[in-house]
UniProtKB/TrEMBL annotation, chains A, B, C:
Signal peptide: none annotated. This is Secondary thiamine-phosphate synthase enzyme. The lineage of its organism: Bacteria, Pseudomonadati, Pseudomonadota, Acidithiobacillia, Acidithiobacillales. Transmembrane segments: none annotated. It holds the Pfam family YjbQ. Belongs to the UPF0047 family. Gene3D superfamilies: YjbQ-like. InterPro entries: UPF0047_YjbQ-like, YjbQ-like_sf. It comes from Acidithiobacillus ferrivorans.
Amino acid sequence: MRHCSHEWQVNNGGRGLYELTQKLQDWLREVDARVGWANLFVPHTSASLLLQENADPDVRADILDYFARLVPDGDHGFRHRNEGPDDMSAHLRSVLTQNSLIIPVREGRAALGVFLFEHRVRPVSRRVLVSFQGVMEED
Amino acid sequence: MRHCSHEWQVNNGGRGLYELTQKLQDWLREVDARVGWANLFVPHTSASLLLQENADPDVRADILDYFARLVPDGDHGFRHRNEGPDDMSAHLRSVLTQNSLIIPVREGRAALGVFLFEHRVRPVSRRVLVSFQGVMEED
Amino acid sequence: MRHCSHEWQVNNGGRGLYELTQKLQDWLREVDARVGWANLFVPHTSASLLLQENADPDVRADILDYFARLVPDGDHGFRHRNEGPDDMSAHLRSVLTQNSLIIPVREGRAALGVFLFEHRVRPVSRRVLVSFQGVMEED
């Protein structure tokens, strides 16, 4: 068993879902991962991660709409507004979702698709830590 | 340290909470797990997992009621309705909970109970990936 | 690769956010962790964990306010009220956040800050299971 890790810089176009599945599969192949666990970790508190198939784009639109209603931008109850109306709402959307995901890996492949869930409105560059712990092809 | 994994087929009776604790304990004993981490992973986007003691059944009823109010079935805002009024609400309930859980294992036992959280109304058969990474009895 | 674990008793002052970051860093140094994953696990269903920088205290106040609105204490819909108006709301706030977090460790340090998120109103003593899986300094 081994541990290996890497860091990605993911430039996104602002609020939305950005698929990381292929990027993760490519990295798992590159490090020769066979069976174990992958971890994706977003070390930011206004973006998160979402396990999701790349299925119907309507699902992704509905997810964004739902969060817009659940945690509205510019809510008058918010004290923290330093970076605009999407500042505190982005933090809360991150709290209600996940910044760290363990994804089982079998035969070198992740068990489900994964997206970066960007909560800030404007384009942002995010760090994503990717790591794998388990058995490699050559073990 | 080793990694071992298995897959369960869990047939459920539709929307509700189904305890997996004993199934997990039995599997941990079967593979001779001693100390480490167990992972449960639901590779579906309309069911999830819940850490919970099997305590008061009222707690489980209140959880179901609360989610029925937080993400109502058949919400008129939803675009995605292919599989009925509980289709998109099931996806969103899954987004707001967790599909992958790490549970510490000590002396061969998981640190807390765990349930499958089925969000679709009708009975469904779900895959649950179970794995353990850590030290075995014979290590 | 190794696994090591410990248990903390965290006495808190009731509902609020209590930073565990330094406690985790100290423990990682004590066990000589170098690179791998840390896990924090709260084996209770009315408290949880939050990844957060110790930034603006307004952010923490807004998080508490938001959860007070999202899951109000003493909601008339709740059946389970054994331990008062903050009993079921505490369970639901725990369901909507996380009780188990994997945090990547590099050069002996955790990738982001972490807080105990206490949902009960009165001061409580909580168990927090901490563990590390990965490569130690002497490996």
